[in-house]
Amino acid sequence: MKIDICFRKEVDSTNDWAKQMAGEGAPEGTLALADSQILGRGRRGRSWKSPAGDNLYMSLILRPEIPPEKASGLTLVMGLSAAQGITDVLELPVKIKWPNDLVIEEKKFCGILTEMNADRQKIRFVVVGIGINVNNSAFSGELQGRATSLKLEKGTVIDKDVILEAVMAAFEKNYKIFLKTQDLSGLVEEYNRILVNRSRPVRVLNPVNAFEGVAQGINTSGELLVERADGSVTAVYAGEVSVRGASSYV
Ligand code: BTN
Predict the structure, then answer these.
(1) What is the whole-number distance in angstroms between the Cα of residue 41 and the centre of ligand 1?
(2) Closest C-alpha to 218, from 76, 72, 102, 109
(3) What band does 239 get if pLDDT is binned at 50, 70 and 90?
(4) Mutational pocket test of ligand 1: of 11, 130, 133, the residue with most ligand atoms within 8 Å of the beta carbon
(5) Distance in angstroms (rounded) separating the CA atoms of residues 9 and 97
């Protein structure tokens, strides 16, 4: 896969722009990159703060030949790749909060939003959007105390291009590994090594049957294995629920 960067100063959302380009036939590897977003979107209908200048907002178009139900694994592949790329260049203790938030010292600095266009059997395209807080100097309101940036953690201004390159290089490598088996079997060990939830109490927030347990790690499908007090283990699918620490965000 060759990464081909398309840049705009300001867009509504790079995910929407990427979906538009994909609909018009843009090939796999096209990366929609913007300096700011007016309507940056997060998971579960939340917004993603996207001021100009400081950060990375980008969405990668993929056209994997895999069954649509396996596409959610790509979010985990991107999360792992961003963690690896950033750790390589900055040597910060980056961890993954399942399924795909990246945290440093329990504070979130990166989120991923994957969207797919498919029919029942075939994927037309997948857009993996990633937002990385690179050079924010402070956070206010509800983000205060819960969010961070690479600059705040490292103590110096960070070159956004270096981060972009490192993340995409790691993704290219991991994407190949994922496609070979069409699951996470080649990546699961490394993912679980840096999983912040591992061996910790978690609350699975599911409106139907919320429950608590201890996270054991992910399986090769990317589901989080949660052991309950009675010893039974439930595989939690990322699309259905979100996970919180039993007493905090992580
Ligand atoms: C989350 O943690 O809830 C996911 C946040 C995803 C934000 C990125 S920024 C680039 C891309 N464009 C969007 O509108 N959202 C994603």
Answers:
(1) 5
(2) 76
(3) low
(4) 130
(5) 30
Structure confidence at residue 247 (pLDDT): 56
- For the Cβ of 107 lying below 6 angstroms from any atom of ligand 1, the answer is no
14 lines ligand 1 (CB under 6 A): yes
What span, in angstroms and rounded, lies between the C-alpha atoms of 176 and 26? 20
User: Three-state secondary structure along 38-59?
Assistant: CCCECHHHCECCCCCCCCEEEE
pTM for this model (two decimals): 0.94
Where is average pLDDT lowest: 58-72, 94-108, 121-135, 227-241?
227-241
Inform me whether the pLDDT recorded for 240 exceeds 80: no
Q: Whose CA is nearest to atom 15 of ligand 1?
A: 41
Closest CA to 177 of 81, 43, 54: 81
> Pairing state of beta strands 30-37 and 4-11?
parallel
Per the CB < 8 A criterion, the answer to whether 50 and 158 are in contact is: no
pLDDT at 54 over 70: yes
Evaluate whether 200 touches 217 at the Cβ level (below 8 Å).
Answer: no
Q: What residue ranges define each of the domains in the chain, with the CATH number in brackets?
A: 4-193 (3.30.930.10), 201-245 (2.30.30.100)
* The token pair that represents 139 in the structure block: 């956070």
> pLDDT tens digit string along 99-139?
889 999 989 999 999 999 999 899 999 999 999 999 999 88
